[in-house]
Amino acid sequence: MARMSVDQRRSALIESAYRVIADHGVEGATTRRICAHAGMPLASFHYAFESRTALLCAVMETAVPTDIERMLHAVLPAADYGSEPGLETIRLSMVRQFHAFYDLLKADPGRMQAAIALGIYAHNHPELQQIGKHMYEQLYRVASAGLRAMADLTPIVWTTPVEDLGPLIIAATNSITLVYLSTADDKVVDAIIRSIADQLMSHVSFE
């Protein structure tokens, strides 16, 4: 194995921890298993992180928000609103965008499962609670930025601050994830998607 810098080791361990959590849960993400996934000896772990807790913090601070942002951005720019979109066009576009997110989820459900598992794990461990809260605040900001981008592409105005609507997006993606992981019921997911689109449209007006 080629010699790695500390930053390279940190990045490799963060990504491997995220993947191992996706496959084995937070409790199953031992330092030994994470190092094996990263292809590095266990003895090298402490060159990058002082503890497993420090690694979990890094995953929640960097990997999860970046991953969710990547998923949302993969959906939002592709929206086709037409030259003069009306309210129904925009609502249907929202529905399509959430379904596109659902398709990405089905292609790799473990990563969203890892994000939710980390949030729950952090809530139940006092040393991680503040980091878990900060992770969700970052996710809210990512979702709010997506709503702001939507307004830039259309003649709509959000009548409620996007900072207040961002949490609804994350709540919806979490709900979609949990339903898929529990039952894979496309009909229920579609109902959630249409409901959140209707709810978001209640906060819209035209310029």
TrEMBL record:
Domain of life, per lineage: Bacteria
Key word rRNA-binding present: no
DNA-binding region(s), residue ranges: 30-49
GO molecular function terms listed in the Swiss-Prot or TrEMBL record: DNA-binding transcription factor activity; transcription cis-regulatory region binding
Keywords linked to the UniProt accession: DNA-binding, Transcription, Transcription regulation
Domain HTH tetR-type, chain residue ranges per copy: 7-67
SUPFAM superfamilies: Homeodomain-like
Keyword DNA-binding applies: yes
Name recorded for this polypeptide: TetR family transcriptional regulator
Taxonomic source organism: Gordonia lacunae
